[in-house]
Amino acid sequence: MNNPKELKARFPYQFEGEAISMSYSRGWFHLFSRLCADIDETLGKDKRGFQWVQVKEKFGAARVYFRLAEGVRDQEPDLAQRLTEKKFAAEAASATTCAACGRPGWIDQRSGWMLALCEKHHQARLDDTLGSIWFEEDEL
Ligand SMILES: [Zn+2]
Prior knowledge:
Blueprint: H1 4-10, E1 21-22, H2 29-43, E2 51-58, E3 61-67, H3 72-75, H4 77-94, E4 106-108, E5 115-117, H5 119-126
Parallel strand pairs: 1-2
Antiparallel strand pairs: 2-3, 4-5
Helix pairs in contact: 2-4
């Protein structure tokens, strides 16, 4: 899956319903894509009303939020726990992954707000040549 549009076509149920905001950086997309596949497998046959609510950047790394249909958390607390662990693992991985290219990176704020980038892209941001790291409207 190369962009959010392809990802949504693969796991449509994860993107149904109302979302607060969905911002995808190019460098972190493979992490999110893998997380969606992992969650799909964890849910098994019954997708139990899983939906993404928000995908964004915060303090230099990715933050992802989901909701489960009413009752699922009470019925199966272990499932919610497992999904949350996967979410945390992907968020943690984004802190050491360049948001522009997906190579190993680290969070730095030399050139403005905190953002995980590789050396090349930290330098590009300092030189003001980084450009947009986010997917464009037609790829969503
Ligand atoms: Zn990079």
